[in-house]
Amino acid sequence: MNSELIAKGKEIESQVANHIRNLRTELESVQLRLKEEQDAAQRASAMGDRSENAEWQIANDNIARYTVSIMSLVNTLDTYKKFSASYTPTGKVMVGSTLKVVDRRHNSTLYIKIYPAGLGNAKIGAISTATPLGSAVLGKTAGTEVIVKAPLGDIPYYIEEVL
Fold first, then answer.
1. Of 23-27, 42-46, 126-130, where does the model show the most confidence?
2. Do the Cβ atoms of 125 and 19 come closer than 8 Å?
3. Domain span(s) for CATH 3.10.50.30 in the chain
4. Sign of the dihedral defined by the CA atoms of residues 65, 68, 72, 74, in that order
């Protein structure tokens, strides 16, 4: 079974790598749009009074928005980079662990990998520590049952394996 968990962990990591590539592509796109807006603001500024220059005001608002987006994307990419080099298995669930958990309410098996808060993508099994399931399993070991509070009632999960 451990080889199955290793394979699932690698599959999640591969999908996260695709997610990171998409984030980098998005960063490049936003950086390009920022440059275009800076050029537009410079052209509009050359036309005179900025207080009555709607083109300059719109470009300036867009520059602020793109700058915030760039900072957020860079921060996310930096966090992924730091995270990827920091995991050592201990047997306890921690950031970087890959788990096989059983959802006892729905009788289904999930393979998940734990990521720091703000990272991850639940659709591909990359669970953030900020999620209810992620926070519930932290520090636990294989053979432990945890209860996750959900809007439609508590969901019991059994941690079958930890890598």
1. 23-27
2. no
3. 92-162
4. positive
